[in-house]
Design goal:
Elements: H1 8-17, E1 21-23, E2 35-37, H2 39-58, E3 63-65, H3 75-79, H4 82-85, E4 87-92, E5 99-101, H5 102-112, H6 125-133, H7 141-151, E6 165-168, E7 171-173, E8 188-190, H8 195-200, H9 202-208, E9 215-224, E10 239-249, H10 254-272, E11 280-284, E12 294-302, E13 307-316, H11 320-329, E14 335-337, E15 342-344, E16 347-354, H12 355-366, E17 367-371, H13 378-381, E18 382-386, E19 397-401, H14 406-419, E20 425-427, H15 433-443, E21 447-451, H16 453-458, E22 460-465, E23 471-475, H17 479-486
Helix pairs in contact: 2-12
This protein binds adenosine-5'-triphosphate (ATP).
């Protein structure tokens, strides 16, 4: 039996069956690339979010929070370059009409056909380099068309492909218009990234929150992208949560601040979320966009995908964002350093991660099928345990009366009441105690408290530890102190 999650299908079923993540709109046959978070998934997501917020603005003096709207003035997306350039290149299977990302199809083709012919009079230098590097990122649709044609790339179903074309990822809305007045000119967009709301509030924060460069604005919120290929569970969805920090600096500080945030963020993953260092890797961008000074992805080695993939981007963006919005809005978005008497447009270093991907990462990392017996019966010999660090666990303490006898139920409710103002607890009286322990192991609950018949005599309960499976007897009167030490 595999000890780790080995596929996204397995991950998806596990997440659904255990109340973490549900596919959207299932009763209507499903709705592609959107997922809903169930009780445990939501609690886990909130725990990660809270830890990020704590690291961003509670434990620092130089970062403030923000909660900007999902809708912004349409000019925002022109200034940011999203209306013109935020697109993927798509190809359609001529037979099934399914759409795929052209770059992905070609890269997959190259991976499985090591002997492809690179000498071709139709290939220019850019195509040859892209083929050698097996990296089709930023290659124009016309050139992707040549590659598909010349190498004979087919759809995953083996069919011919239509001409590749650009597909804008911004999601449109008709906010503020009626059917009669709605047209391409007055379209508003659901935000494709949360950071634009930060740039638009730079001046408000500067003028009203007594900040001085260097300072950061951080926010968590939903973003929407019309992703074409979204078959990677919650790794790539059309609606997702981002956690973004934009840190405003003097241009001279760029290298130092970029290095500082790389270190801060990797330490957060290892020290706060408990991810092994070996499972994380920086991946520098092959090609920098023209205004960027540096760009790297933090990647995590997903067991369920069998590869490292991006969880966060750390980018040195120069003065591009503020300059663009200054240009399009006609407003001054600069900074005056009173001590030095210097006026300049701040540069930005950003650390931008996807909350859904982090939920996926921590489950992927801490999920384990552990061998605990040798009877030959797989069900008995293995338990699934989610070894989440305690601060991430959705449920901290489960309260389990040994039987459904009324006096045990009453005592269990009394214990729950005592603990629930400090910890997220759960009461469960269904199934055998062994099964209930397994269920709590599987959702990552660090401690189970069992109320048995002896409890009624000695006012003590049995506490079972998720990881060691050791049990100990603790007086009910001492429970609060016991857990406050365990969770400290
Ligand atoms: P990718 O290359 O995977 O499409 P990206 O480079 O476009 O991602 P950014 O625009 O830098 O991503 O967004 C920052 C972070 O937001 C990413 O590192 C990722 O964690 C998250 N993210 C981006 N797109 C999605 C999505 N469709 N679903 C879930 N999370 C996403």
């Amino acid at each position: 039996m595999d000890t780790k999650l080995t596929s996204l299908d397995q991950f998806k079923s596990w997440a659904k069956e255990n109340g973490f993540i549900f596919p959207s709109s299932e009763i209507y046959g499903g709705f592609q690339a959107v997922y809903d978070f169930g009780h445990y998934g939501y609690l886990l997501k909130e725990n990660i979010k809270n830890l990020w917020q704590k690291a961003m603005w509670q434990e620092r003096d130089d970062v403030v929070s923000l909660d900007s709207g999902i809708f912004m003035h349409p000019k925002t997306w022109e200034a940011s370059g999203h209306v013109g350039g935020f697109s993927d290149v798509l190809v359609e299977d001529k037979k099934t009409h399914k759409r795929y990302r052209a770059d992905h199809l070609i890269e997959e083709f190259l991976d499985s056909n090591s002997e492809f012919e690179i000498q071709n009079s139709k290939f220019d230098e850019e195509i040859v380099t892209a083929l050698e590097k097996k990296d089709m990122d930023k290659i124009a649709p016309e050139k992707l068309a040549i590659i598909i044609q010349e190498l004979g790339v087919k759809s995953p179903d083996g069919n011919d492909l239509a001409e590749p074309r650009n597909f804008n990822l911004l999601v449109k809305s008709n906010l503020g218009t009626t059917d009669a007045t709605f047209n391409e000119e007055n379209v508003t967009y659901l935000r494709g990234e949360t950071c634009q709301g930060i740039y638009l509030n730079y001046k408000n924060v500067l003028d009203n929150l007594r900040v001085k460069v260097p300072f950061g604005i951080a926010q968590v919120g939903k973003a929407f992208r019309n992703e074409i290929v979204a078959r990677q569970f919650v790794f790539r969805t059309r609606e997702f949560e981002q956690m973004e920090l934009q840190y405003f600096i003097h241009p001279d500080m760029n290298d130092e601040v970029y290095a500082m945030w790389k270190e801060e963020r990797i330490n957060w993953y290892t020290n706060v979320l408990g991810i092994d260092k070996a499972s994380l890797k920086f991946r520098p961008h092959e090609k920098l966009i023209f205004y960027a000074k540096a760009a790297e992805d933090v990647t995590y080695n997903f067991n369920s995908m069998g590869k490292f993939d991006e969880i966060e981007g750390i980018h040195a963006r120069s003065d591009y964002d503020l300059s663009q919005h200054a240009k399009f809005s006609g407003q001054k978005l600069d900074y005056f350093d009173q001590e030095k008497g210097e006026r300049y447009t701040p540069w930005i270093v950003e650390a931008s991660c996807g909350l859904n991907r982090l939920v996926m990462m921590v489950i992927d990392h801490f999920w384990e099928n552990e061998k605990i017996d040798d009877s030959g019966d797989e069900k008995r010999d293995y338990r699934t345990v989610l070894r989440l660090p305690k601060n991430l666990a959705p449920i901290k303490v489960a309260i389990l009366p040994l039987s459904k006898k009324e006096d045990l139920q009453n005592k269990a409710h009394e214990v729950k009441k005592m603990l629930q103002s400090d910890y997220m607890t759960e009461y469960d009286e269904t199934a055998s105690i062994g099964k209930r322990y397994r269920r709590q192991d599987e959702i990552g609950t660090p401690y189970c408290v069992t109320i048995d018949f002896e409890t009624l005599e000695d006012n003590a309960v049995t506490i079972r530890d998720r990881d060691s499976m050791q049990q100990e007897r603790v007086k009910v009167d001492e429970l609060k102190d016991y857990f406050s030490e365990k969770f400290s």
